[in-house]
Amino acid sequence: MHLRRADRSLDFAPASVSDYRELARRKLPRQLFDYIDGGAFGEVTLRANREDLSRIQLRQRVLRDVSHRNLSTSVLGQEIALPVILAPVGFAGMFSRRGEVSAARSAERAGVPFCESTLSICDVQEVNNALTTPAWFQLYVMKDRSYADALMERAWAAGCRTLVLTVDLPVVGQRYRDVRNGISGETTRSIRLRRGIDIARHPRWVRDVALKGKPLTFGNLQSVLPLAKVPADFQRWIASQFDPSVTWDDLEWIREKWKGTLAVKGVLDADDARQAVARGADAVVVSNHGGRQLDDVPSSIRVLPEIAAAVGDQCDVLMDGGIRSGLDVIKALSLGAKACLLGRAWVYAVAGAGEQGVDHMFQILRTEMLVTLGLTGVTDVNDLDATILYRDESL
């Protein structure tokens, strides 16, 4: 992959998914990079997602025939070439020109699903127009239920058949980096000046995204936010529309409305997972919102085994949170996940090197997973279980 030729300001070519974080940091205005990179409060859970994965060790096995290894699996009835899904990430079109479309095209080439966020810059029709296999669609339930109803109708009309209902955002987490950067909270004159200087120091982003990437509005919300600009108007709308009164009854209402497959994202408790399945979920996503909501909650990988044991025979169990490598994916699958959602990983890649970067990210993940299978003596991701792990007992 000739990233040097594509961008002569880089002094290295990415060898791992984590390398794209550095490329994104260089290319993006600080306020946008911090929005991707940061978490809630003291970012304890953000760090735990990575640290807990790193403490799980793999069991190396030898003298087994691993000449043929399979990475394909089935999630929600859909055959996928790798056990990964590109997670819904809001604002992605702010990090790279028409970022959602770029990532969705790359995901389709890799043979995996892309999940469109309610809060995407590119709307669901634009994304699906670029694909032959429709994207999944992520939904928040808002105070005015007619918004959610209209979004489901719009997603269905665009071809989406899998809905991912995010349930861990009745209120927005306190994200201190965003407050410092004026993305949320009070915006003083000095903060506005600092943000302006920050933007001015990134002329390539201004040219490629701010100018050539227009319109920079929330495509899926144009009927309710026709004049919304990023981020101030949207933050006001968030405060007025995200609904702390959402209950399990709303999940039943969604299940009744949505005729396709339904995943519930944001589950950290086994009893909640059982409730989700009882109310009609076809999958649960074990997730702490990437450490961006409630801090000091467990990492996703810590609670995954308990949730998989509780509902894994009744629905597909997926996981996100801290996944940065093929080794991480193998660990999660060994502890009960059917596949992993990647959020920051693909956004770092698209921000750092555009669509080419996401393509390369998939190449890295594929190679890492194949190598990990080979050195643990496993030939099929569908056969993974905890016998290939030495698990840190503190988890």
Gist of the model:
With 395 residues, the chain is an alpha/beta fold.
Task: Summarize the structure in words.
With 395 residues, the protein is α/β, with parallel strands linked by helices. It has one domain (3-176, 238-390): Aldolase class I (TIM Barrel). The chain is built from 16 helices and twelve strands. The strands form three sheets. The protein has an eight-stranded parallel sheet. Helix 2 (19-27) packs antiparallel against helix 16, helix 13 (270-278) packs across helix 14 and helix 15 (326-334) packs across helix 16 (344-376). The mean pLDDT is 92.
Count of helical segments? 16
- CATH hierarchy: architecture: Alpha-Beta Barrel
Overall pLDDT: 92
Beta fraction: 5-15%
Helix/sheet category? alpha/beta
Strand elements, count: 12
Feature tags:
TIM Barrel, eight-stranded parallel β-sheet, alpha/beta
Task: Please write out the topology.
Blueprint: H1 3-6, H2 19-27, H3 30-37, H4 44-54, E1 57-58, E2 73-75, E3 78-80, E4 84-86, H5 99-110, E5 115-116, H6 124-129, E6 136-139, H7 145-158, E7 162-166, H8 176-180, H9 189-200, H10 203-211, H11 232-241, H12 248-257, E8 261-267, H13 270-278, E9 283-286, H14 300-311, E10 316-320, H15 326-334, E11 339-342, H16 344-376, E12 389-390
Parallel strand pairs: 4-11, 5-6, 6-7, 7-8, 8-9, 9-10, 10-11
Antiparallel strand pairs: 1-12, 2-3
Helix pairs in contact: 2-16, 5-16, 13-14, 15-16
